[in-house]
Backbone:
């Protein structure tokens, strides 16, 4: 018995030594990091592949497949700019993606997600550094706290409005973050100034909430540069100006006024949302807010001011949303991304200062196990929806084979936040022939009409 105990202890010591070697030996550390990146890419790709076209995907795809020239994508965005929404580039991207095959869209959407993670990663670090725990942590927090993860990441129409629309702003912001740590001489180069100016213009013209947060955080960065360096660098002046111009073009779009003129708001609703919107962010990510508060009050990070820039920006988005509407679950995407960056800035510095290497390995291991559990939950929810939808596709094809073009299918109820259709409807397709999505699905499958079995409401 004593010999068995000794063998177990030796095995534990050997296992711990190997784990520490992987985490702290430079080449093994980098190799394990790359392996995790590849694994995450594959996991997200698998979930993208399991997500079918949903809702607005059918409408835009029906339209995009009629385009005969590349300029048609910009014409689509131009028409929406005057009729519905100022997000010109998001709409151009939307039409372009939905003109492609689903398999290619799956790859591009996965690459966009990985780009999001790495842009958050470098906004947190502000330098090149291999951090396994940070990479896993960003993914874990995104998967844990985004209330409608599937809508923002896997639903193509949603990803164009939220995932794709935040990439250029985060890339633009990353450059300001680099200069925050160290005033690199390259930022004085006119080519760099021109690059930042162009990026600022596009970043400002992406999404209303992100643009407002950008303007706030750029003013904060500029003030910090002024205090530290006794002047505001040329790239900051040019970048802030171009971001403002882009934001103006986004906000003054005639489509914004046409859309919001249909939504009657009272003074009471404005005041109510002034409280409800920031509260909704806290409600969706309470542990993030608590962790942020603890690290700000008790932590030893030297970057608390920087963290506050990003954290306050998250709440600025919630306030800016008030004139348009109360904040919906999928709109929480950008505020939570900025909140994660704020927490990451503080936690990464605290984590790096841990003297106990075993503790760092344990935390990283727990995060990996947590990601495994989250992926399992996501796969189950998305597969459930996809299998139910594919049954409907078989019903459609069987009806068409018999010459029946007025088709009745089964309602599909999304149950997981990782499903792209989650929180869009109670069930889809609707039981009404004239419902917009039903008509678009019917057009896509070349039917006269389509509806689901009517659901009787229980008393």
Residues:
């Amino acid at each position: 018995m004593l010999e068995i105990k000794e063998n177990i202890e030796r095995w534990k010591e050997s296992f711990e030594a190997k784990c520490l070697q992987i985490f702290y030996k430079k080449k093994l550390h980098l190799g394990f990091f790359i392996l995790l990146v590849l694994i995450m890419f594959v996991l997200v790709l698998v979930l993208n592949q399991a997500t079918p076209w949903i809702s607005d995907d059918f409408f835009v795809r029906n339209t995009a497949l009629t385009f005969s020239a590349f300029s048609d994508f910009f014409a689509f965005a131009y028409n929406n700019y005057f009729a519905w929404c100022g997000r010109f580039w998001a709409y151009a991207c939307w039409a372009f993606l939905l003109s492609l095959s689903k398999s290619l869209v799956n790859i591009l959407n996965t690459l966009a997600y990985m780009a999001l993670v790495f842009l958050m990663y470098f906004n947190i670090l502000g330098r090149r550094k291999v951090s396994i725990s940070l990479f896993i942590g960003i993914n874990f927090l995104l998967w844990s706290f985004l209330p409608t993860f599937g809508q923002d990441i896997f639903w193509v129409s949603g990803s164009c409005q939220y995932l794709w629309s935040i990439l250029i702003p985060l890339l633009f912001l990353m450059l300001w973050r680099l200069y925050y740590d160290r005033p690199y001489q390259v930022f004085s180069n006119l080519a760099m100034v021109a690059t930042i100016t162009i990026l600022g213009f596009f970043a400002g013209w992406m999404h209303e909430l992100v643009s407002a947060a950008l303007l706030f955080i750029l003013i904060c960065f500029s003030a910090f540069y002024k205090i530290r360096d006794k002047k505001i660098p040329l790239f900051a002046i040019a970048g802030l100006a171009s971001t403002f111009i882009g934001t103006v073009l986004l906000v003054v779009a005639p489509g914004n006024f046409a859309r919001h003129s249909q939504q009657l708001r009272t003074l009471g609703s404005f005041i109510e949302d002034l409280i409800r919107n920031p509260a909704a962010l806290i409600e969706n990510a309470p542990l993030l807010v608590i962790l942020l508060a603890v690290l700000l009050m008790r932590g030893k990070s030297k970057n608390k001011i920087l963290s506050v820039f990003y954290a306050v920006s998250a709440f600025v988005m919630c306030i800016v949303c008030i004139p348009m509407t109360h904040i919906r679950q999928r709109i929480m995407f950008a505020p939570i991304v900025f909140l994660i960056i704020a927490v990451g800035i503080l936690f990464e510095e605290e984590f790096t200062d841990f003297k106990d290497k075993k503790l760092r390995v344990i935390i990283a291991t727990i995060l990996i196990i947590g990601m495994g559990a989250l992926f399992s939950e996501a796969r189950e929810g998305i597969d459930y929806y996809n299998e139910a939808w594919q049954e409907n596709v078989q019903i459609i094809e069987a009806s068409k084979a018999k010459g029946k073009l007025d088709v009745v299918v089964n309602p599909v109820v999304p149950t997981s936040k990782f499903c792209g259709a989650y929180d869009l409807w109670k069930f889809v397709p609707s039981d009404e022939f004239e419902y917009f999505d039903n008509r678009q699905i019917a057009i896509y499958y070349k039917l006269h009409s389509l509806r689901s079995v009517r659901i009787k409401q229980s008393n």
Observations:
- The longest strand covers residues 406-409.
- The radius of gyration is 24 Å.
